[in-house]
């Protein structure tokens, strides 16, 4: 009787969570990976999200939605580990707005009852996953860096200064994946079956995609580059970043920046690395005129080799650097470029 009374006192939300935990432990994982793309190519982060899904075991379905997704669907169908591809091609998904994609994902969830829904922890995933999670009345699990089991995940908190292990009792886990923590799943080697899905009734979306301006660069993409050279406030102005571009040309490197350099208007904000910027983990990271604040370290400290050039021998960046050069960057960088 007491047990019955206690159960009666549970909120319906808590009860469905407990039920989800029981049911969740009884079924194999079946994951949905939401592909991020631009109509032409798949954003590399998607393959890191597939890698995380593969660690969960079970079947993996990928969802491709957009006004034009034929080419991307053909590419993703070959992705190793993906057994099924859901394709939703419609103008309603122009701009890949989370407001439009959410009803589509909810519909897919209703139909297939996935145990996990994942995407990369970029701007796309960060705006989409919390919205879908809220609609499903479950918690979003953001920016995971490890999978311990089907319901237990590792993520960082306090700008990367502490590592947290979270266990979720939700019936479906809504997850964003930190790309640098999962080696990309191979782009070929699979042959997924393809299913075209209808577009659900979107109702009043309330947001309209108007236009976008994308910065174009011939340099490697920051989050995918093997070498990254970043400049900080010590660069003094935007023109001086030319020193870094010249060095980057020699090393086929991407160029990033600290937030101080972005806030001062030296370079655009898509170059920012750190807690509120991009997270990178290249083979080689060269920090030039950057002090090494924890918020910057949060975005680059997993780099394999870190080199710091700073005129202040006490700069905190030297504590994480494998190689440090105490020097004036305006002398050291041109010299390095010339020697290379
Ligand atoms: C909530 C929050 C989020 C944040 N997110 C981010 C983030 O995502 N990314 C980020 O980078 N920061 C972030 N910050 C800001 C962060 O705290 C620091 O203010 C910032 O990283 C400092 O940038 P910096 O190292 O370029 O500048 P400074 O700290 O001013 O360092 C400049 C360095 O250049 C060196 N220097 C100057 N002249 C020369 C020279 N001629 N030769 C060699 N060295 C020279 C100096 O010795 C100094 O060490 C965030 C802060 C907050 C509060």
Automatic annotation (TrEMBL):
State any single GO MF term.
electron transfer activity
Name the cofactor(s).
FAD
Highest taxon above the source species: Eukaryota
What are the recorded Gene Ontology BP terms?
A: fatty acid beta-oxidation using acyl-CoA dehydrogenase
Domain Electron transfer flavoprotein alpha/beta-subunit N-terminal stretches:
31-213
Q: Which residues form the signal peptide?
A: none
Q: Name one Pfam family in it.
A: ETF
Q: What stretch or stretches form a coiled coil here?
A: none
Keyword Oxidoreductase set for record: no
Annotated InterPro entries:
DHS-like_NAD/FAD-binding_dom (IPR029035), ETF_a/b_N (IPR014730), ETF_a/FixB (IPR001308), ETF_alpha_N (IPR033947), ETF_asu_C (IPR014731), ETF_asu_C_CS (IPR018206), Rossmann-like_a/b/a_fold (IPR014729)
Keyword hit for Hydrolase: no
Q: Which UniProt keywords apply?
A: Electron transport, FAD, Flavoprotein, Mitochondrion, Transport
Q: How is the cofactor bound?
A: Binds 1 FAD per dimer.
Q: Name one GO cellular component term.
A: mitochondrial matrix
The residues listed in the UniProt record as binding FAD, with positions renumbered to this chain, are 233, 258-259, 272-276, 289-296, 310
Q: Where in the cell is it found?
A: Mitochondrion matrix
- Function of the molecule: The electron transfer flavoprotein serves as a specific electron acceptor for several dehydrogenases, including five acyl-CoA dehydrogenases, glutaryl-CoA and sarcosine dehydrogenase. It transfers the electrons to the main mitochondrial respiratory chain via ETF-ubiquinone oxidoreductase (ETF dehydrogenase).
Family that this chain belongs to: Belongs to the ETF alpha-subunit/FixB family.
Q: How does the record describe its quaternary structure? A: Heterodimer of an alpha and a beta subunit.
Q: What is this protein called?
A: Electron transfer flavoprotein subunit alpha
The species this protein was found in: Geodia barretti (Barrett's horny sponge)
């Amino acid at each position: 009787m007491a047990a019955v009374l206690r159960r009666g006192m549970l909120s319906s939300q808590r009860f469905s969570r407990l039920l989800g935990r029981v049911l969740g432990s009884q079924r194999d994982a079946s994951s949905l990976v939401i592909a991020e793309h631009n109509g032409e190519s798949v954003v590399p982060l998607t393959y890191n999200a597939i890698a995380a899904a593969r660690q969960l075991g079970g079947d993996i379905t990928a969802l491709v939605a957009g006004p034009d997704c034929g080419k991307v669907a053909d590419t993703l169908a070959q992705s190793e580990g993906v057994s099924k591809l859901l394709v939703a091609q419609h103008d309603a998904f122009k701009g890949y707005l989370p407001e439009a994609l959410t009803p589509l994902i909810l519909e897919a969830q209703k139909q297939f009852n996935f145990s996990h829904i994942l995407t990369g922890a970029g701007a796309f995933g960060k705006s989409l996953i919390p919205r879908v999670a809220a609609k499903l009345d479950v918690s979003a699990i953001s920016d995971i860096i490890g999978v311990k089991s089907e319901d237990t995940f590792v993520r960082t908190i306090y700008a990367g200064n502490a590592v947290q292990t979270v266990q979720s009792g939700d019936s479906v886990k809504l997850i964003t994946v930190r790309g640098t923590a999962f080696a990309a799943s191979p782009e070929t080697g699979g042959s997924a079956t393809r299913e075209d899905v209808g577009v659900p009734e979107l109702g009043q979306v309330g947001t309209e995609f108007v236009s976008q301006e994308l910065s174009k660069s011939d340099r490697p993409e920051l989050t995918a580059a093997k070498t990254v050279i970043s400049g900080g406030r010590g660069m003094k102005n935007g023109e001086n970043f030319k020193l870094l571009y010249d060095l980057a040309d020699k090393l086929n490197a991407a160029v990033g920046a600290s937030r101080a350099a972005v806030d001062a208007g030296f370079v655009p904000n898509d170059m920012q690395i750190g807690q509120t910027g991009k997270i990178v983990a290249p083979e080689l990271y060269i920090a030039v005129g950057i002090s090494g604040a924890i918020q910057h370290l949060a975005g680059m400290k997993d780099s394999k080799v870190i080199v710091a050039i700073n005129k202040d021998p006490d700069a905190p960046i030297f504590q994480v650097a494998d190689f440090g050069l105490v020097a004036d960057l305006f002398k050291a960088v041109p010299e390095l470029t010339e020697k290379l």
